Amino acid sequence: MKLFSCQGCGELLYFENIRCENCGRALGYLPDIAEISALDPKEGGGWTVLAAQGVGYRYCKNYDSGVCNWMVPDHAGEEFCVACRHNRMIPDLTEPGNDVRWGKIEGAKHRLFYSLLRLGLPLENKNDNPEQGLAFDFLSDPPESHAHNVMIGHDKGLITLAVREADDDVREKVRSELGEPYRTLLGHFRHESGHYFWDRLVATEQGWLDAFRELFGDDRMDYDEALKKHYNEGAPPGWGEEYISVYATTHPWEDFAETWAHYLHIVDTLETAGAFGLKVKPRRARGALAAAIDFDPYKAPRMDTLIDAWLPIEFATNNLNRSMGLLDLYPFVLTPRVIEKLAFVHALTHHRQSLRKAG
């Protein structure tokens, strides 16, 4: 993610900030120009937007609920921002604690949308495109006397997230029980969006579908049977040479979704590292693990460029985390086969960017 600063005083900002801690100005994110803007109130109402002088903006309707700091151009005729207008069902706010959980969920979802917008991916909602649009349901578990717990998943453009995943203790318990090295709200969103974009970008184009099957396997295999086999037998021996995670071994769809999520992890983290001018030059490695991010990771023409920067960065940050007694920031291994799959995702997303420029 980019590094943002207040146009009024120069204070550095977090993506989620709604007010500058230094000068007190209100802040709003402008997704159309990928910038956080300081705001000055106008006499009689409205805002002077310092990052886009002369352009009228208003806050997303969900700003009033304390879960969104994104803004909508006055000419758009929309109540909700480009991220929030995809919500189909929000948590039941009469349930204690759901307001806080929803805030955490939206924070992660908005970071997902930052990446999807930067990549120029199609983002119609269900009102725009009932058949192929993207929507979200954030659901609480039903009473114990009723149905099964809410599951996390994707079905025909609808991404469902269990509200309980916003509780750190619940998520850590599940992570430990499943033996996962990593489990976050942002990771869930990135993974499930991979399923959505597989449907939108891969399944609908024969050339991409053929290339996918050659690399990831045949998606026509029975998914339910594959899932049962995974949970009954676990990952196959030597899975780490071919897959980014244990769950990726379940089915080609899951392999793609996991790879898609990791591609977004890598690109967005590299952009953040580059925004801070982070350079890696370990004294004992004689240049073998040196990296300087002097390019835009979202627009890098080759996957090799991303990998050459990522490996030193993740090695350095893993060591920093271990110095604090924490788990590795990135507890995964990128083998040549996994990098080949990441390159497929890179080519797919950059193909979209090329089409957008041509249009």
What's the structural blueprint in terms of helices and strands?
Elements (H helix, E strand, L loop, with lengths): L3 E2 L6 E2 L12 E5 L4 E7 L5 E3 L7 E3 L11 E3 L13 E3 L8 H21 L16 E5 L13 E3 L2 E5 L5 H11 L6 H18 L3 H11 L6 H11 L18 H24 L3 E2 L10 E2 L10 H21 L12 H23 L1
Parallel strand pairs: 8-9, 9-11
Antiparallel strand pairs: 1-2, 3-4, 4-5, 6-7, 10-11, 12-13
Helix pairs in contact: 1-3, 3-6, 4-8, 6-7, 6-8
Structure overview:
With 359 residues, the protein is α+β, with helices and mostly antiparallel strands. It folds into three domains: 1-82, no CATH class; 83-197, no CATH class; 205-359, no CATH class. Helices cover 39% and strands 13% of the residues. It is built from eight helices and 13 strands. The chain has helices at residues 98-118, 168-178, 185-202, 206-216, 223-233, 252-275, 303-323, 336-358; strands at 4-5, 12-13, 26-30, 35-41, 47-49, 57-59, 71-73, 87-89, 135-139, 153-155, 158-162, 279-280, 291-292. The strands form five sheets. It has a four-stranded mixed β-sheet with strand order 8-9-11-10, covered by helices on one side. A three-stranded antiparallel β-sheet has the order 3-4-5, with no helix packed on it. Helix 1 (98-118) links the parallel strand 8 and strand 9. Helix 6 packs across helix 8. The chain starts with a strand and ends with a helix.
